[in-house]
Write a structure and sequence with these properties.
It is a single chain. With about 230 residues, the protein is an alpha/beta fold. Helices cover about 25% and strands about 20% of the residues. It contains six helices and eight strands. The strands form two sheets. The protein has a six-stranded mixed sheet, with helices on both faces. Helix 3 links the parallel strand 5 and strand 6. The N and C termini lie close together (about 10 Å).
Length: about 230
């Protein structure tokens, strides 16, 4: 797919750094990120509004390693969301997720008296690879949280959500849910010549308009080619 000439594609590839941030990481396109997150979050954490946060987070000391998130945002009710796209396989992606989650946790600390109450933190990984220990598992969406020895949730304010895109094999006529439609577009957007009839709701009409390469400035097209 990446070997094609840019002129052969009508729509951007969302599995590039530039494409992912173009669709989900800017204020004018915030509705797309909200819609995508709501398709994977539990109903009790449905988002109605969010604000983008600084995606570069520094450690507590000059020697600490910093974390640079693809997208970092906060909902009106205080939940923090880290959203990462990972095209190439990374052996320690789970470790990285845990490390990254410590930054939005620590930033909630307050000076003076503080009772340690925290808002929920979600780390979402959109992966274009399959974890080695999941190769024989057909599950596409993994939601991970802290549980005790009886598999009861010990702490429900820290969640890691992983989407293993290569496992999604549905065709257009097999799409059943809103989540299905999102996964199809993440996998196949640059392959489409026109918006399919089954993807004509308001959210996806906005996505097709934003993703159309003909609407890019020359500088944006150059940046996109570099990301490919």
């Amino acid at each position: 797919m990446f070997g094609r000439r840019l002129s052969e594609e009508r729509y951007i590839n969302p599995l590039t750094d530039f494409g992912f941030k173009r669709l989900f990481g800017t204020e004018p396109n915030k509705a797309l990120l909200i819609d995508f997150l709501n398709s994977i979050l539990p109903e009790y954490h449905t988002i109605s509004e969010l604000s983008y946060r600084n995606s570069e987070n520094l450690g507590n000391t000059p020697l600490d390693r910093k974390a640079i998130f693809d997208i970092y945002c906060k909902s009106e009710s205080g939940e923090r969301f880290i959203v990462e796209i990972q095209k190439a396989k990374q052996n320690f992606f789970k470790d990285r997720s845990v490390y990254y989650a410590t930054f939005p946790i620590q930033e909630q600390a307050k000076q003076g008296f503080w009772d340690y109450e925290l808002s929920a933190v979600y780390t979402v990984g959109v992966l274009d690879f399959v974890f080695d220990d999941h190769k024989n598992d057909d599950t596409i969406l993994h939601t991970v949280e802290l549980k005790d020895q009886n598999c009861k949730v010990f702490y429900d304010k820290l969640k890691f959500i992983y989407i293993e895109l290569p496992k999604f094999q549905k065709t257009l006529d097999q799409l059943e849910t809103h989540f299905d439609k999102w996964l199809f577009l993440l996998r196949h957007l640059p392959d489409l010549k026109n918006p399919p009839q089954t993807l004509q709701d308001k959210t996806f009409r906005q996505l097709f308009e934003i993703a159309e390469l003909a609407n890019f400035s020359p500088n944006e097209q150059d940046a996109y080619e570099d990301s490919l």
